[in-house]
Amino acid sequence: MQLMEATDFNVTTTPWLVILGLCVVMALVRLIAPKFYSHYLWSGDHKMIGKQFLVSSLLWAVVGGALALGVRWQLAWPGTEVPGFKQLFNWADGGAAPEHYNVMFTMHASVMIFFVIIPLLVGAFGNFVVPLQLGAQDMAFPFLNALSYWLMWPAFVFMAFSFYVPGDGAGAGWTSYPPLSETMLGDGQTLWCMGVWFVGWSSICGSVNYITTIVKMRAKGMQLFRMPLTAWSILITSILVLCATPVLGSAVTMLLMDREFGTSFFVPAARVVSETAQATGTGQVILWQHLFWFYSHPAVYILVLPAMGMVSDMLANACRKPIFGYRPMVYSMAGIAFLGFIVWGHHMFQSGMNPALGRTFMIATMMIALPSAVKTFNWLATIYRSQMKLEVHTLCSLAFVSMWIIGGLSGIFMAATPVDIQIHDTYAIVAHIHYVVFGSTLFGVFGSIYYWYPKMFGRFMNKPMAYTHIIITFIAFQVTFFPMHVVGSRGMLRRTADPYFYGNLQGMLPVNQLMTVAALILGAAQLILAVNFFWSMFAGKVCTERNPWKATTMEWNTPTPPVGHGNFDVIPVAYRGPYEYADPAAPEDFTPQFQPLTSAEKAQGQARAH
Amino acid sequence: MAQSNATPTSRPVLLVLALALVVLLCYGMRVAFEKPSTALKLALPASAGVNATFTLEDGSRMPGTGNLLVDDELVAVQRITAEGSPVNSGILLLTNQHTFKVLERGAAGTKAVDHAAGAAVKEPGTLFFPENFASFGDAVDELFYLILWITGIAFILTEGFFLFCLFSFWGKPGMRAAHTHGNHKLELIWTLIPAVILVAIALLQAGMWKSMKMEIPEAGAPNVFEAQVAAKQFEWNFRLAGSDGKFATADDVPAVGELHVPVGRKVRIVQRSMDVIHSFFLPNYRVKQDVVPGLAVPVWFDTSRAGRFPIMCAELCGLGHTKMGATLVVHEVAEFELWLKAESTKWASENDGIDRPDWSGASSKVWWWWDQNDVAVHYQGETTNR
What we know:
The complex is a heterodimer of chains A (610) and B (386). With 610 residues, chain A is mainly α. Among the domains of chain A are: 11-41, no CATH class; 43-267, Cytochrome C Oxidase, Chain A; 550-610, no CATH class. Chain A is built from 20 helices and two strands. In chain A, strands 1-2 form a two-stranded antiparallel ribbon. The N and C termini of chain A lie far apart (75 Å). By secondary structure, chain B is of the alpha+beta class. Chain B folds into three domains: 40-116, no CATH class; 128-162 and 187-215, no CATH class; 224-372, Sandwich (Immunoglobulin-like). Chain B is built from six helices and 16 strands. In chain B, the strands form four sheets. In chain B, strands 9-8-7-11-14 form a five-stranded mixed sheet. Chain B has a five-stranded mixed sheet with strand order 10-16-15-12-13. Chain B has a three-stranded antiparallel sheet with strand order 1-2-5, with no helix packed on it. The interface between A and B is large, with 109 and 109 residues.
């Protein structure tokens, strides 16, 4: 697939032309097929926007996953061509050159964070589930909601183009530290900045919408402390997004201006660009790191909080038991969000930042382990003395809890500043982030897909396929990522194309090959999910029940799938808390929020009021 | 009616089983993480210069060639083995009769797993960390293992409980889960216990961090050896003061890719970068510090053993990042003084009569740039100079 010659590009115009072309296509579709347009393209319906986010994120996950396998391939068989990459990315060396290795890990992280995890959690499930859980007919601002999805598309175009421009794609890591990201890289880096900028806009539009919806559009009786934890997590995440993303947007704008318009926000004094030239500015290199991590540390919680909320919902359902300590769960999420803003410096312990500041950040970082621990213990207490029901989302939420323990505990090593000296920028960090973002968040996402799929598409996903997918993924995940803790703390650096250049790392080749083989299996297992996802849409077992999982939250009070724009055929009223499972006084082991109070309950409530 | 599926009589049994699981896992951890402590047993001949045979007491193996510490003196081991495979007995070529310890088992390329299978008095690198030679490194390693113990126990308790639940609480028809919404006392307990532990870890490391990053030995203080590091894409440039003890003079000793220092001194390094951010990483000395353009960042460590150690670039610096390595060469004091004198004389004669020292070779421009653009030594956001 020779897309076009790299030299044919005009970076400043081509992506814009493509975006313009997309707009023209949309306008044409609107003229020719207005119903198709308003239903599938520019839909104001939160359910359709959620599905749009879901499908585009899953497609980008294929790209991000392929890039990850490219990275793993290089670590197992350094300097060899990655099968298919020559054709896919138009690289003559097939990804064997170090500059292409840099592009692979940079774009793997960028794609997975900006195009997969954030849109999946907030965009797809936040959109689809939250209004239903609140008993709202739609989001507060349907237009803004559609805008937040379609603002992703310029980002998609820019990021996709960045692979093919002269001078290669963005290769400064997803953190894009200047000066490397300023002068040393080609136009791919500019397109990366543009992409991130649009993602930022999309997130901001979304977060305003979620906050308004959750604050203003709850059904009658849906008090804040009757909201399911998914809704709570999206509310807290949206506040994080709203406060943090403008900082990233500003930082990226500054980087763009440094690159394209000759400013010197991040250009230090006496820097040498080439043998002959010096570019001297009055900027501070470390300023970028402060700005970037001021967004990106909260972003780490943006990457996991919604999954925590969704897993809490699924776990209570799977265990047939109320979530243990509902209010502490909410407070601990709020605590994580608050502390998330004052710990960004722990990414910068070795950056040349004043070490006295490092100490402050270390203590704040230790504190953030507390709310995380509270959540873990509460999940464990939820499982204790429960009546677990074997479903796919049961396995996923159990996987989430157990992997979150590992990801959380390994974080304590990094928070300890002297230990961080040794493991900073090594595979120990890679292991930690993947235990949190893959082991926890993605298992939460898998579970959510299996859990809410019937409500979305009116069909169940295929169970045997789902079990196969989850079990292979879980095992391959452990083999891929657990050894990274060990090789990392022994000194294997991340972001090095050929670590075996160093004599002290040569012995790690066999372990890396093992990890790569496991990663390939891990990647292949996701094909099962892809097949299952699209096949079940048309051929899965039809679900006509409103509440197939016997759940208690409001979204199960709509027809399956919810018909049309506007969600409820009955006026939704919330009568009780979100997790009323196993009430000994109730006729069944679950009492949904929307089930009217019995006379006994009414009498009890009145007695309490007096 | 609501019932737990674990009946009152079966509950103690399950509890005992879970506790047994935890104890078993703890014991497994102890075996897995225990530092090897077996000694090298030698049958030594009385006279010097002959072969000595050795056996490892516990029957564990010693792969590759390595170094021995003989009365604080480093002796290379030439071990005769069949086909170079790991053995538990062999022959050493020694120069004298001493008590000694194994310092470094295995040359470059020895598998990590072989490093871990221990047979040494001196810790030859643990399962997780490479061997340490810095004075502050032992404390770091101890902190690492302390955290490993704490998190390991927390891991076993939580995951053990998780597994216990996983095997005990599958739903049975007609049964209902315990109807509870939480327990404030319990939650208070499991908030406070981690809080105390975390605060303890935080307090414990504060002093360590201070001694590593904040108490940089001052230039010119006794027993402090100074060196300069100029990082550029993709090489490490090092400069030592020549015989006159001053930098930016004709007899300075520049080098690319090799940092030579004497043993037994505190090494103070001032680092600057010409282009992008690099990171000076010495895994065997527990040193890592980003080299930031526009700043002159100090870093220090002390040398206790002669030898060669890897220097790595830990921060992505471009397409050549992966090959940006260098070597730290720690010399014996007498050897170092001879070496420095010879190098210094060589460079002084090359620069003789030139007003602006025109160092030849790849590093010339680097040091010209360094001397032209003076920067005070400090961290970002710090007002005092170091």
